[in-house]
Amino acid sequence: MGYFNYIPNVAVPSFLSDKKASNEYVVAKNIFRKIKVLDALEDNMLLFDKYEIYQGDRPDTIAEDIYGNSELDFVVILSANITNIRNQWPLSEYDLYNYSHDKYGSEINALHHYQTVEVRDSKNRLILEDGLVVNGDFQIDGPGKLYPVGTTWKAIRPSGQAISLFQETLGGNAGDLLNTIGVAISNWQYEVMENNKKRRISVLKRSYLNQFLEDFTRIMKYDRNSQYASKNLIITENNNLVS
Predict the structure, then answer these.
(1) pTM of the prediction?
(2) Beta-carbon contacts of residue 31 (< 8 Å; ≥ 6 apart)
(3) Share of the chain above pLDDT 90, in %
(4) Which of 21, 44, 71, 139 could crosslink 172 through cysteines, CB 3.0-4.6 Å?
(5) DSSP character for 111?
(6) Cα torsion through 89, 90, 92, 93, rounded to 10
(7) Is residue 36 very low, low, confident or very high in pLDDT (cuts 50, 70, 90)?
(8) Which residues pair with 200 in a beta bridge?
């Protein structure tokens, strides 16, 4: 509830069936008055620390860990630039499996796509980056076409094993691809990788917390306008009133 302590109020005409008069208002939190971390802050990475979300972590537990106050969970969410917590927060293993099973059914372990592995030459120069999504017939010219006979490259497989590559052409079909410069990614593996991407977030450093909260409070206050009642309240027009 910490976030709502900073949200100003808005008085809107009552649409309740049991209202006593047409000039009745209902006071509510103005949830449309949202802000995100200022672009200037986002560009200054010195203000943030990298954080890895682990199994069971929630915004409030992270806030407790970093800031000593679970009610500052909104600081975690805002500094991570999360606008939809349901879609942008990593799922637990149990929930991820259920989500994937609902999505793919019996095809959960079927092929989703192929992707490349990292390939380097004998001087450790990068020839092919890993993680590129490719078709099953993807191929590149091997070391035999570009360098003297006997020149080798190395492919770093997902297991960490480095295998030597001698061929003139690498890949060309799914079988050759999987034996040299590519791997097959299943639907389940794809969902796990996408979920893991959500685990790496930026969080505001504790040393900047007080300044952030001061600025946040100031920005959330109302400026004087035709609906102004106070810094924490505006009153909208009541069209139910007959002039």
Answers:
(1) 0.78
(2) 7
(3) 57
(4) 139
(5) E
(6) 160
(7) low
(8) 52
3-state secondary structure of 154: strand
Q: What is the pLDDT of residues 133-167, one digit of tens each?
A: 999 999 999 998 877 878 899 999 988 899 999 98
CA dist 91 to 17, 88, 120, 163, 194, Å? 41, 9, 35, 35, 10
- SS3 at position 76: helix
List, in order, residues 6 or more apart from 26 with CB less than 8 Å away. Answer: 11, 12, 13, 14, 15, 16
pLDDT score of 18: 72
β-bridge partners, 42: none
Task: Please answer whether residues 190 and 184 qualify as being in contact, where contact means their C-beta atoms are separated by less than 8 angstroms.
Answer: no
CA distance to 69, 149, 241, per residue, from 27 (Å): 28, 80, 18
Q: Where are the domains of the chain?
A: 3-90+199-235, 109-193
Give me the pLDDT at residue 243, please.
Answer: 47
Residue length of the chain: 243
Conformational region of residue 179, where left means phi above 0, alpha means psi within -120 to 50, and beta covers everything else: alpha
pLDDT tens for 64-74 read 999 999 999 99
